[in-house]
Amino acid sequence: MRTYDDTFSGQRIYPGKGKLFVRGDSKVFRFQNGKSESLFLQRKNPRRIAWTVLFRRQHRKGISEEVAKKRTRRTVKAQRAIVGASLDVIKERRSMRPEARSAARAAAIKESKDKKQADAAAKKAEKAKLAASAAKGQTGGRVTSKQGAKGAPVKVAAKSR
Hints:
Layout (H helix, E strand, L loop, with lengths): L3 E2 L6 E2 L5 E4 L5 E4 L2 H8 L11 H6 L28 H9 L2 H40 L8 H5 L11
Antiparallel strand pairs: 1-2, 3-4
């Protein structure tokens, strides 16, 4: 015996019962009775109507005696290496005493500051050397534009009354 499910309510439709509704795009809908057909045509949401199968499934009605509560699995945390550090280095850092860790951190900060300072000093020295060599090649130390160097006349400043 061939049975169908009601499109709206989800209940079983036995042979000789129900209605068939074919939409304009040729999609077939089967309804058990006029009640489910009417609600479907009113565009009601079956998940909000208490007697439908979809509502009962969504709100977990009538399944408590059939299925016991599922046991949840505990997630096991696994330690993995990070791009910059291997696993043993990470474990070693974690097992360090707080005083030793803070001392190592302070040393690393001091080292990076010293490096930054040395870089800044080198950059400053380079800049001074460039300025000195530029001043040597210039006459009078005046900065001229490219047009001025080519011999173009100097622009006259605009005067207002």
